[in-house]
Amino acid sequence: MKRILPIAVTAMIAGCSLDFPVAITYGDSITEAELESFFRKHKVENHYVVALKKRSIVDVYLVTVHGYPNNLSVCEDLIAPYNKDASRSTIPGDYYCEELR
Fold this sequence. Notes:
By secondary structure, the protein is of the alpha+beta class. Helix content is 40%, strand content 21%. It has helices at residues 4-19, 32-41, 71-84; strands at residues 49-55, 59-65, 94-100. It starts with a helix and ends with a strand.
């Protein structure tokens, strides 16, 4: 009995790890690349997540849009006023939306 319990626990853990492909993040911070990689592999409520970004000196990841039936159109509605009137933003550049697939 003493040998069966550790074997059973090990088998159970090994089996569970195959069913859940979500990577575990250690620490209290992740990079933008890790965040984007996660959302490229996972949908939220069966919809693709959209990244709101800004083209400037470098591309900047600003917001993740999710929770809507059409995240891309919501993102495009958010950026329209800023791209129409550059004075609304202090940093020059264009905003754009990228669906993370």
